[in-house]
Amino acid sequence: MSTALADLLDFTVVDRSTEEGIVRYRGVIPDVFTIGPKVHGGSVQMMVSHVARRALGELAAGDDVVRLGDVTALAVASDYLAAPDPAELDFAVRIVKRGRTVSLARVDVTQGGRSMVTSTVTLGRLDAGEPRHREPTLLDDLSPVPDENALGLEGTPLGEVMHLAPAVDLAIDPDWFPALRGQTGPPVTRGWIRVKDAGAQPTGLDREFPVLVCDISPPVVMNLGLFGWAPTVQLTTYVRRRPQPGWLRFAANSTEVGRGMFAEDHVVVDEAGALVAQSRQLALIPSGA
Predict the structure, then answer these.
(1) pLDDT in tens, 208-249
(2) Residue 135: inside a domain, yes or no?
(3) What sections of the protein cross the membrane (predicted)?
(4) Residue 136 resides in a domain
């Protein structure tokens, strides 16, 4: 069964060089994964994390194939050089280092011969078990699942801009998004998200889906009355552990919004409250805002 997320992770191998440690893939980013007319940056980064893990396995030999079975992207650092269109993308993956604990890949994304996104991906095994120390987060008092006041995508003004409804169930905490009421407030948002049709999705998706979630919030500067496309300059995402099945909660905030740029932090936890992923992105203030 084809689903939006499955289509996002459907790649064709164009070329493979074991000697050079490079695999070239071609994939398509569907219209679903756009915010307004622009491709959703977290979706591209999810594709990057997927091809990095896949290339590491495809270039391995013998017992290494088994050993790499539970290896996934731990950190993805992406520089966005241009905004790709929802269409075919080419991914050139070079394995920089293959280690027993940590491996490193470089992934260059191009479209029509033009460089779009360049990333480094750190690959290894996710954390597990209880943490040694934990600080409070903005999500500690948020219900593990959406409450009756949660604002969904479908049939709302937000859904007219964020086109991800065929791929995910997404709900925003309206108390933390005054922009939708024509009001202003702190640059903080939070909400809930889960994979739509989870049973039909590719195996292992739960390891890579948090990468997408770490860029899922509407730009927090909307709460300051700054509307429009906020282009991502750089996005670094850390995946900490595999989430429990069900809803993920996310919060995004900015400690300082400048005249031309702002940094936005995401934190993502699962229904049990375990930290799943974190990110920080540098973005531009919407032009004309």
Answers:
(1) 999 999 999 999 999 999 998 899 999 999 999 999 999 999
(2) no
(3) none
(4) no
